[in-house]
Amino acid sequence: MTEIESDHPRAESLRVREKLVNGFEKGLVVPEGLSAHGRGEAFDYILGEETSNLARKAIETATATLLEAENPVISVNGNTAALVPGEVVELAGEVGAKIEVNLFHRSPEREKLIAEHLISHGASEVLGVEEEFAARIPEIHSDRRKVDERGIKAADVVLVPLEDGDRTEALKELGKTVIAIDLNPMSRTAQAADVTIVDNIVRSLPLMIKEARDLSEVSSNKREGAVWGFDNEQNLGSTINLMLGRLEELSQT
């Protein structure tokens, strides 16, 4: 990995890019994943590369939703595995969630690589790689229709970081609660999800881990209050207004 000086103005962004390149070289990330990250990074610039209070509210709601779920699952693609493998494992442990590999550009070899990568970061079990437990969601027309019958197929709540809109909509149609992490508040994923965290995953997952520890100390009634008091449409609208304000501010400086 290229050494990045800590005083470089783009140091953190460059470190994230290096993780993706490293993931690409290992076979975890596909070329389309690099393109998707670049698109998201453009929105992060507008956000000021900071986690907004609106995103923090969504993080609180998302974490409370996972804690209150009966069978929560964290869906992992190549970019997520490359960027935050340890955080995925840690969050799953805090909220009692299963981890499942689910890929748009799917191959058995890549699924196994990602599963092994997560296991090397502490996961005791990773679903989505054993054909004997494979199920299909007919509402999905991409390779992501393949799910694990023990995981996403049976889940009531699914965290889908760095997701595509088709599967988010299909999971909603199946009656599942969907939590998305998406830097674009106007995407189909963001608009279709029940809770959308408009933030960079490298910032939001550590915050979710901390939130899970804090919320585990309060009553279930308080966690349910955080869930029912959240309006995703309103939060997204406010986030877009925040972005417009940032652009207006930048245009004056």
Explain the overall architecture:
- It is built from eleven helices and seven strands.
- The chain has a five-stranded parallel β-sheet, with helices on both faces. A two-stranded antiparallel ribbon has the order 3-4.
- By secondary structure, it is an alpha/beta fold.
- α3 (53-68) packs across α9 (201-215) and α3 (53-68) packs across α10.
- It has a single domain (53-245), classed as Phosphopantoate/pantothenate synthetase (Rossmann fold).
- Keywords: ATP-binding, Coenzyme A biosynthesis, Ligase, Nucleotide-binding.
- Its EC number is 6.3.2.36.
- Catalyzes the condensation of (R)-4-phosphopantoate and beta-alanine to 4'-phosphopantothenate in the CoA biosynthesis pathway.
- This is 4-phosphopantoate--beta-alanine ligase.
- Homodimer.
What does this entry show, briefly?
This protein is of the alpha/beta class and 253 residues long. It is 54% helix and 11% strand. The protein has helices spanning 11-26, 31-46, 53-68, 78-83, 85-95, 108-120, 165-173, 188-192, 201-215, 220-228, 232-251; strands spanning 72-76, 98-101, 134-136, 146-148, 157-161, 177-181, 195-197.
Helical amount: 40-55%
Give the domain tally: 1
Average of pLDDT = 89
How widely separated are the two ends? 35 Å
Number of helices: 11
- Stretches where pLDDT is under 50 for at least 5 consecutive residues are none
Reading off the top of the CATH hierarchy, the class is best stated as Alpha Beta
CATH architectural category: 3-Layer(aba) Sandwich
Number of strand elements: 7
